[in-house]
Amino acid sequence: MKWPDSVTLKEVGPRDGLQNEKKVITTEDKVAWINLLSKTGLTYIEITSFVHPKWIPTLADAMEVAKAIERRKEVTYAALIPNQRGLENALEANIDEIAVFMSASETHNLKNINKSINETFPVLRKVVQDSIHSRKKVRGYLSTVFGCPYEGAVEIDNILRVSDTLFEMGIDELSLGDTIGVANPKQVQEVLEILLKRFPSTKIAMHFHDTHGTALANVLAAIEMGITTFDGSIGGIGGCPYAPGASGNVATEDLLYMLSNMGIEVGVQLSDMLSAAKYIQKKLGRALPSHNLQAALAVKE
Amino acid sequence: MKWPDSVTLKEVGPRDGLQNEKKVITTEDKVAWINLLSKTGLTYIEITSFVHPKWIPTLADAMEVAKAIERRKEVTYAALIPNQRGLENALEANIDEIAVFMSASETHNLKNINKSINETFPVLRKVVQDSIHSRKKVRGYLSTVFGCPYEGAVEIDNILRVSDTLFEMGIDELSLGDTIGVANPKQVQEVLEILLKRFPSTKIAMHFHDTHGTALANVLAAIEMGITTFDGSIGGIGGCPYAPGASGNVATEDLLYMLSNMGIEVGVQLSDMLSAAKYIQKKLGRALPSHNLQAALAVKE
Question: Which of B146, B180, B191, B216 to probe the A interface (max A CBs under 10 A)?
Fold first, then answer.
């Protein structure tokens, strides 16, 4: 089997993680936590989302967080942006990279963004164009690639149509999301086989959820296809806050443990990641689903 | 990528799972639970261990359990046997298949069995010979193949020496255990590449732990090498009972979810497995680490 020499992990915990947690973390604690993450070796941290506080009240302090964190030059600080207004705020906050998002399934897009897929395109097109004009890189998130909670299976043609349109707008990278954690390694390879005929592997990232325990197996399937960028959420935060043991986002430290033990260079320190995971577990006040965090805590007890 | 058409899952929860749980399950509940497992489509269930109750008090009712369960002819009911005395009891209890165990690392073998590796061989040899004489199949468990809690890395020569000796004794199948859950897919393929030069893939099973979240990725790596038999513990029981979120044995239903969704025939019903997992979670009185169990419970809430 051939595996890559190095892999990039993109940390989405402060945004994708926290936006799905019930408990509100104070601005001061978010800043301290992001500062911890900045020192782990991570090169990309999605620190917040500039959406209207009505939609995600837990991230209402986006501007304050962005302005208060210590910036390190080796780290790209990104934020999720839904529209023009969000972009203006992000630029004011001196965000390094812009992330936009939509779904491959019509129903999920409608429920999540309150617009059809076709209605979403012009909104994102303007955000992407203005981001490029402001010399910002743009990352696109595509949700429900491997299954939709409302529609079930998602047609490959829908995935391709949205991917094509996002790349045509000018995004630099597309992150393919297994939003409900239903992907399996065979499906990952089948979807990637088709997508990699159109887009280079360096432009594709994978965003897996560990809901059914398959996240790292899916990562393995993806690296075998040449993918070298993976999203993770430290501690596995942003899971299903309604069930104590249920997992959502794959934990960044679980990704790191597997990949670095395979001899793949990641450039991130596991011990530093575990410190940052312990910090946020304490603040969230619940046992987080990260395997490596719980294994580390079990050893100490 | 080439994957097998079908895979066999061997259920070790009632033995390997329960022996590592603090809470004692009543004989009546064990019997009811094993009867549930018998109806899932599983073809191999390790129901107990005939070790001295001093060592594993939670399995002190081995004889009662073995005699009380409803036997289905399509299921092989196996038990773990440490010595001649255990074998006699297992034969009296009409156990279908005998499982013996030892470690690839000297220190783990000493701590676990209270004998050196060389001192263990003649004990197991007699058990294996007498089992064969009694027309019973014998499964061998080899612990700490991918790492030892006391010695760290385990030399491949030690793995080969013990594997050779066990097969030479006459075991039918060898289950390679990642006892502390430290294996990674690269290591799995490296170890299997060497072992499969000596033994056919049909004689090798993999026994992964999900301590660091890598179990299903390791399964994927192993099926790519031609392995088609995997051990699982329903609910993921037998993890680390000291830390609520920490995982040990990979959950059988997590294995089943991934493999069956890949189109690989397993012959086991996920819904039936989840029912049996819910049953034992209730009896053990703690949230079990199985991803699919927690995901199923989260949906219902």
Answer: B216
The predicted pLDDT at position B241 comes to: 47
| Predicted structure pTM score | 0.96
Cα of A228 to nearest chain B Cα, Å? 16
Q: Is residue B147 part of a domain?
A: yes
Choose among B182, B185, B163: nearest CA to B174.
B163
Range(s) of the domain holding residue A141 = 8-300
Which of A221, A240, A298 minimises the CB distance to B220? Answer: A221
Determine which of A165-174, B126-135, B161-170, B290-299 has the lowest per-residue pLDDT on average.
Answer: B290-299
In sequence order, the 6+-apart residues with CB closer than 8 A to the CB of A168 are none
Contacts of residue B213 in chain A, CB cutoff 8 Å?
210, 215-216, 251, 254, 257-258, 290-292
Output DSSP code: residue A209.
Answer: B
Which ipTM did the prediction report? 0.96
Would residue B1 count as lying in a domain? no
pLDDT in tens, A103-152: 999 999 999 899 999 999 999 999 999 999 999 999 999 999 999 989 99
Lookup result for tokens 């073995």: B66
A44, amino acid identity: Y
Average pLDDT over every residue of A23-44: 97
The count of domains in chain B is: 1
Q: Which tens digit of pLDDT belongs to each residue from A64-84?
A: 999 999 999 999 999 999 999
Helix (H) or strand (E) holding B258, with range, is helix B252-261
Q: At what angle do helices B215-224 and B185-195 cross, to 10 degrees?
A: 40
The answer to whether A212 contacts B287, with C-beta atoms less than 8 Å apart, is no
At residue A283's C-alpha, the angle toward residues B181 and A72, to 5°, is: 85
**Which of A254, A262, A298 lies at the smallest CB-CB distance from B185?**
A262
- B280: domain CATH number is 3.20.20.70
